[in-house]
Specification:
The chain has helices at 2-34, 84-91, 95-133, 138-172, 182-185; strands spanning 46-50, 55-60, 67-68, 73-80, 193-199, 204-209, 216-217, 222-228. It has 230 residues and is an alpha+beta fold. It has 3 domains: 1-33; 40-84 and 188-230, Beta Barrel (OB fold (Dihydrolipoamide Acetyltransferase, E2P)); 93-184.
Length: 230
């Protein structure tokens, strides 16, 4: 009986001594199983520079093998400015068409002013005999005459504006040959755009440059890959 107890005690001590090593083995296996498949230690040092907006690559500021600091611009992208199309259309509009539109608008104002003169003149003529007969007051006649004077002033201003618009149309129809650079000035302006820079989020060496000048990119598109400084 005592021999069996002795053997059992010895076996228990061996199991207790083996427990720390067994636990360490289990922890190591768990750590290995928690790493995603395909991940390597070197993958943590990769930095990807993405496009901050959609546009066209205007400049590549760091080629492959170049070292860049944190926050340094790597690629410049030209982004079209919203609403610039209307401004460009107005700037490139045919001068003759613009002048002709001015003539049409000024003539409409002349016609409206002339109609106002006629209307107020008729009102003065209507009130004049009524005042003489006592059917209308002198104040009413004076008010009608004041409106007639204002209508005449408006008519004269409209006529002057119409003459100026007509002169502008005649000038626009003249050939633009006064200066050697006239043809160049009439060329359409370049589309309005703003430049944005894709920056490195950390310092490192450019290992791969994925775009070239002139490429069209979308927002979030990878532009370059860096090997981050250790």
């Amino acid at each position: 009986m005592s021999t069996n107890l002795t053997n059992w005690a010895r076996a228990s001590r061996r199991i207790v001594r083996a427990l720390p090593a067994f636990a360490l083995l289990l922890l190591s296996a768990a750590a290995c199983g928690s790493r995603p498949a395909g991940e390597t230690e070197g993958a943590a040092g990769i930095v990807v520079v993405n496009a901050p907006a959609a546009g066209i690559v205007r400049r590549v500021l760091a080629g492959e093998g170049a070292h860049v600091s944190e926050g340094a611009p790597v690629v410049e992208i030209a982004v079209s400015v919203e609403g610039a199309g209307a401004a460009r259309a107005q700037a490139t509009e045919d001068p003759q068409a613009r002048a002709a539109r001015g003539v049409t608008a000024s003539q409409s104002e002349v016609d409206a002013a002339r109609a106002e003169v006629v209307r107020t003149e008729v009102e003065v003529q209507r009130l004049t005999p009524l005042v003489a007969s006592g059917a209308a007051t002198q104040g009413e006649l004076d008010g009608a005459r004041a409106q007639y004077d204002r209508a005449q002033q408006r008519f004269r201003r409209a006529q002057d504006a119409a003459q100026g618009a007509q002169s502008g149309l005649i000038a626009a129809r003249q050939p633009a040959t006064n200066s050697p650079g006239a043809a160049a000035k009439s060329a359409a302006p370049a589309p309005a755009e703003r430049i944005v820079a894709a920056q490195a989020s950390s310092a490192g060496v450019v290992s791969v440059m994925s775009v070239r000048v002139g490429d069209r990119v979308t927002a979030g598109q990878p532009l370059a890959t860096l090997r981050a400084d250790q």
